[in-house]
Amino acid sequence: MIILDGKKTANDIKEEIALEVTSIVSSGGKVPHLSAILVGTDGASETYVNAKVKACEKVGFKSTLIRLSEDVSQEDLLAEVEKINKNSDIDGLIVQLPLPSHVDEMKVTEAIDPEKDVDGFHPSNIGRMVLNLPTYLPATPAGILELLKRYNVETSGKHCVVIGRSHIVGSPMSILMGRNTNPGNCTVTLTHSRTKNLQEITKTADILIVALGRVEFITSDMLKDGVCIIDVGITRVKSDKTKSGWKLLGDVDFENVKHMCSFITPVPGGVGPMTIAMLLKNTLLSSKK
Asked: Would residue 119 show up in a list of annotated catalytic residues for this protein?
């Protein structure tokens, strides 16, 4: 069993990006600049955005964090997006999700200039991904591909089962794993809450990608020996064994399934760090354009 170490791999990628930024700047080029909009004071969103800002500092990017109140109007938020779209110094823009219920998330996503959409959520970029054209891939799926590639996980001809059909992970992942590329060339089954006989399907998976948000949903009786598991889920649960009183768990019962796996991502330290690394990679790509 090999642990797919997202923390180490993400740090490797950041070092590669930092070297490239140093080279670009020393030859008179532009410092990449990522802007983030944070609406409200959601704890998880604060954590994610702060991690992204720190990552920018580490690789030598400029970063701008725009904080807006929970009750900001949709019009004012869209005006802020438009201001960044027009700012030629800013290469990438992320609007941290989720947004308050009175704001239409899709309208905000569509308002972002596709050239600055380093999250890869704009319909134009999703369309280019489906057609296998150059684009910004959604950061989490891109991070998963990078992990598989760097650990030389064989994907060609394998059966990949994806659990969860979100626009952020499950749906794009099912498309990417089926593409005629490496990693890719899988036979893909996309499963979700309405799937019948899920256990029968997961037992045939050579590669299982789980993005449900349900703690330890995947158990050993749902797997075959030698499976490669990518656990995207991360849920904070109460614990009396940690100083903070909380611990992070994935969608997979890690301790009881790891002996069956050829490869497996831990939670935390698996897919999470890779998401931020790929966001930086997309921003670097944008700045070069």
From this structure: yes
Residue 116 is among the residues annotated as catalytic for this protein: no
Q: Of the listed 91, 117, 119, 206, which one is catalytic?
A: 119
pLDDT of res. 241: 79
Please check whether the domain covering 141-272 is classified as CATH 3.20.20.140: no
Range(s) of the chain covered by CATH 3.40.50.720: 141-272
Tokens of 189: 């089954």
Chain centroid, CA 8 distance in Å: 16
Q: Is the pLDDT of residue 12 over 90?
A: yes
* CA atoms 280, 274, 148, 197: torsion sign: negative
Mark whether 74 is an active-site residue: no
pLDDT number for residue 48 = 87
Do residues 210 and 229 lie in contact, with contact meaning Cβ atoms separated by under 8 Å? yes
Cα 147 from chain centroid (whole Å):
12
Residue 129: its H or E element: helix 123-130
Using an 8 Å Cβ cutoff, are 62 and 56 in contact?
yes
Catalytic residue among 5, 14, 52, 158: 52
Q: How confident is the model at residue 130 (pLDDT cuts 50, 70, 90)?
A: very high
CATH code 3.90.1300.10 for 29-114 = no
**How large is the average pLDDT for residues 215-220?**
95
